[in-house]
Amino acid sequence: TDRKLSLSLSLSLSLVPLMIRHYTPLHFATLKGHTGICRLLLGNVVIPDPRTLQGWTPMHLAALKGHTATLVELEAHQGSVDLPGKGGWTPLHLLLVAKADPNVAEDSGWTALHLACNGGLFPSVLQLISNRANVNAQNNSQATPLHLAAQNGSVLTIKALLMNGAERISKDSTGCTALYLARKCQKEEVNILPRDPGQVD
């Protein structure tokens, strides 16, 4: 009908400025926080970090809008939360600005600190801790940032978390401590993590 055609034309015209600036379908999905659509696009071998003319990646846009769940999905597909964009801003910088609270968690319980520890991003971890990020925050699997740092083998991150009060023997929903996960992943960081007498090797 004429009304549908008019609506379609209006929508198309509204997207023209964004398309000219090299926005991809992945950029559009992240702007709206459509995590499911992002997963679908990334499952079809879409590059996770395409840049707009201004240098923004989908992760920058998701962070700017405070869409933490979308950030987690992009990171799972090799997107970088520490990639500088316009003015040197990384997605984690933008996430802090967008939320103004580093302890705000998305639906699965991930905070910005979980995200940084999962990616082994030591400078971002320090920045988040300095912004009063909770080092003992648990996601829906009861995993803390220390669990993720141990799994990913970041010695500096582990030390920073421990120095700032991270619970050394906190267990996730499967009963695993950070020490157990480090051993399971064959990470050398086990030397700086305490032994839990109750943990089965």
From TrEMBL:
<dbReference type="GO" id="GO:0085020">
    <property type="term" value="P:protein K6-linked ubiquitination"/>
</dbReference>
<protein>
    <submittedName>
        <fullName>Ankyrin repeat and kinase domain containing 1</fullName>
    </submittedName>
</protein>
<dbReference type="Pfam" id="PF12796">
    <property type="entry name" value="Ank_2"/>
</dbReference>
<keyword id="KW-0677">Repeat</keyword>
<dbReference type="GO" id="GO:0070531">
    <property type="term" value="C:BRCA1-A complex"/>
</dbReference>
<feature type="repeat" description="ANK">
    <location>
        <begin position="54"/>
        <end position="80"/>
    </location>
</feature>
<dbReference type="InterPro" id="IPR002110">
    <property type="entry name" value="Ankyrin_rpt"/>
</dbReference>
<dbReference type="InterPro" id="IPR036770">
    <property type="entry name" value="Ankyrin_rpt-contain_sf"/>
</dbReference>
<dbReference type="Pfam" id="PF13637">
    <property type="entry name" value="Ank_4"/>
</dbReference>
<feature type="repeat" description="ANK">
    <location>
        <begin position="141"/>
        <end position="173"/>
    </location>
</feature>
<keyword id="KW-0040">ANK repeat</keyword>
<dbReference type="GO" id="GO:0004842">
    <property type="term" value="F:ubiquitin-protein transferase activity"/>
</dbReference>
<feature type="repeat" description="ANK">
    <location>
        <begin position="108"/>
        <end position="140"/>
    </location>
</feature>
<dbReference type="GO" id="GO:0031436">
    <property type="term" value="C:BRCA1-BARD1 complex"/>
</dbReference>
